[in-house]
Amino acid sequence: LSNGSVIAQKVISISPLIVNIPVSGITVSGEGMVTVGETSTYTVAIEPINATNLDVSWSVSPSSLATISGDGVLTALATGVVTVTATSVSDTLVNGMILVELVSEDT
Prior knowledge:
mainly beta
């Protein structure tokens, strides 16, 4: 400056506080009966609804009777009863299940 004064400036960045909200429950919904050779889509309701990570992984047991895709589409391969499970990606101890009966076309 022309009068010999010095101006000091400091820029402070403030980041928002990120709070991890854990998944506390998963409810699986969908058909309770699927015909062999057909598909059915399953969905989840996650609690709380504002959980940080709402992603789930899908599995079916026994896998010899049916398959399930990453987006919850079950394909019935043979008759029997399977358990469809959705597991929280952020906490594998949290999951939801539904029993599904796989029936032949004649049923």
